[in-house]
């Protein structure tokens, strides 16, 4: 039997593997709970699995927790992690804590899905380093498990409540691994994170948007829009040359027809594009869409040459959208004092 990645295995897969090894079904359930629910980082922590069975399992299942290279903490509570993978590559992810809701605190993790990114959006630090490879399901899930492990050392009751696939990489270009990771994170014997509390952010991979609506209509969709006209978006989001705005808007309409869920349209605002005419073009583009606009002041990133808009520019831009009857919000700034933009910490560390 070839060596299989433990953190990327579903419960059904573990049951089958255990049966092939001559182990009982309950061993697979115990194993799954230790890994996916309790977020252990070693075989020795699995205390109700005997040493002989652990040796048998470890001979066929490889278990590579992510190595924490660096952790930065913001004054607002945001934590940014740089993790090293088993092959030496590095990825980033971010934990954002929000004030208590009616029932509990909200702990959101922003996950990476690739090492680097091939899309090359103009304002993104990740794209400056190019694309290395896709993450495996275990490496995607591992970000949640390892952050959970570390935070529980300080807060034993810590539980991730929300997931956003908005870190390094384009999630829909690693589609199968991302969807399997979602299933694992949702599992009732794992982290039990609700499907509707997970969101995939994409630059606009049109065929996969439609496929996502059919494969998992519970998961939220966010579109990294950033411009309302093709000539401008071609410069900001190179994927637009392959899937221009007309086809992207059609895909979003089909998504809402299938899922009955609204789409979040993300617009990165700079000192250059936060203008009234840009806002008016956005109103025209999104007319008739079931959606919500999220305005994101760009993080300052060395190498992009882009500057943040002023608070007044953001307010004026939002007002144009609100006057047109659109739902709009401005993303709360978090982690700017620790370089929370995707790819910044990795670039900084690799440059040392």
From TrEMBL:
What's the main place this protein lives? cytoplasm
Q: How is the cofactor bound?
A: Binds 1 [4Fe-4S] cluster. The cluster is coordinated with 3 cysteines and an exchangeable S-adenosyl-L-methionine.
Q: Which species is the source of this protein? A: Desulfosporosinus metallidurans
Q: Which PROSITE patterns match?
A: RADICAL_SAM (PS51918)
Purpose? Specifically methylates position 2 of adenine 2503 in 23S rRNA and position 2 of adenine 37 in tRNAs.
Q: What reaction does this enzyme carry out catalytically?
A: adenosine(37) in tRNA + 2 reduced [2Fe-2S]-[ferredoxin] + 2 S-adenosyl-L-methionine = 2-methyladenosine(37) in tRNA + 5'-deoxyadenosine + L-methionine + 2 oxidized [2Fe-2S]-[ferredoxin] + S-adenosyl-L-homocysteine; adenosine(2503) in 23S rRNA + 2 reduced [2Fe-2S]-[ferredoxin] + 2 S-adenosyl-L-methionine = 2-methyladenosine(2503) in 23S rRNA + 5'-deoxyadenosine + L-methionine + 2 oxidized [2Fe-2S]-[ferredoxin] + S-adenosyl-L-homocysteine
Starting at the broadest rank, the lineage of the source organism is: Bacteria, Bacillati, Bacillota, Clostridia, Eubacteriales
Which locations, inside or outside the cell, does it occupy? Cytoplasm
- Under Enzyme Commission nomenclature, its number is 2.1.1.192
One GO BP = rRNA base methylation
GO cellular component terms given for this protein: cytoplasm
Instruction: Name it.
Output: Probable dual-specificity RNA methyltransferase RlmN
Return the NCBIfam families for the record: rRNA_mod_RlmN (TIGR00048)
Q: Does the keyword Transmembrane helix apply?
A: no
Q: Which UniProt keywords apply?
A: 4Fe-4S, Cytoplasm, Disulfide bond, Iron, Iron-sulfur, Metal-binding, Methyltransferase, rRNA processing, S-adenosyl-L-methionine, Transferase, tRNA processing
Which positions are annotated as binding [4Fe-4S] cluster?
Answer: 117, 121, 124
Residue span(s) of domain Radical SAM core: 103-337
Pfam families, A to Z: Radical_SAM, RlmN_N
Q: Catalytic center at which residues?
A: 92, 342
GO terms (molecular function) for this protein are: 4 iron, 4 sulfur cluster binding; metal ion binding; rRNA (adenine(2503)-C2-)-methyltransferase activity; rRNA binding; tRNA (adenine(37)-C2)-methyltransferase activity; tRNA binding
The family annotation for this protein states:
Belongs to the radical SAM superfamily. RlmN family.
Question: What HAMAP family does this protein map onto?
Answer: RNA_methyltr_RlmN
Name the needed cofactors.
[4Fe-4S] cluster
Miscellaneous remark of the record: Reaction proceeds by a ping-pong mechanism involving intermediate methylation of a conserved cysteine residue.
Q: Give TM segment ranges.
A: none
């Amino acid at each position: 039997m070839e060596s299989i990645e433990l953190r990327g295995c579903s419960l059904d897969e573990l049951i089958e593997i255990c049966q092939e090894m001559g182990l009982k079904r309950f061993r697979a359930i115990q194993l799954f709970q230790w890994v996916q629910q309790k977020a252990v980082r070693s075989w020795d922590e699995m205390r109700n699995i005997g040493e002989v069975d652990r040796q048998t399992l470890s001979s066929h299942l490889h278990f590579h927790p992510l190595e924490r290279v660096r952790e930065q903490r913001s004054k607002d509570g945001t934590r940014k992690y740089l993790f090293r993978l088993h092959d030496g590559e590095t990825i980033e992810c971010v934990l954002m804590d929000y004030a208590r809701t009616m029932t509990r605190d909200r702990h959101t993790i922003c996950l990476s899905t690739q090492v680097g990114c091939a899309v090359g959006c103009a304002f993104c630090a990740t794209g400056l380093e190019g694309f290395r490879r896709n993450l495996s399901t275990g490496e995607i899930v591992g970000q949640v498990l390892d952050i959970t492990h570390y935070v529980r050392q300080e807060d034993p009751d810590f539980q991730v409540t929300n997931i956003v696939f908005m870190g390094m990489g384009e999630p829909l270009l690693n589609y199968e691994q991302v969807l399997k990771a979602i299933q694992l994170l949702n599992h009732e014997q794992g982290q039990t994170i609700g499907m509707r509390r997970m969101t995939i952010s994409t630059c606009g991979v049109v065929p996969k948007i439609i496929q996502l609506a059919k494969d998992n209509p519970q998961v939220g969709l966010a579109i990294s829009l950033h411009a309302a006209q093709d000539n401008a978006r071609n410069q900001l989001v190179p994927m637009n040359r392959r899937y221009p705005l007309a086809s992207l808007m059609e895909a979003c309409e089909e998504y809402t027809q299938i899922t009955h869920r609204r789409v979040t349209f993300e617009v990165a605002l700079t000192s250059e594009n936060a203008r009234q005419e840009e806002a008016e073009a956005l109103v025209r583009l999104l007319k008739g869409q079931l959606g919500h606009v999220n305005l994101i002041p760009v993080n300052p990133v060395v190498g992009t040459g882009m500057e943040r808009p002023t608070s007044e520019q953001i307010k004026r831009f939002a007002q144009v959208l609100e006057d047109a009857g659109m739902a709009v919000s401005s993303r709360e700034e978090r982690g700017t004092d620790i370089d929370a933009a995707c790819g910044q910490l990795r670039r900084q560390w690799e440059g040392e």
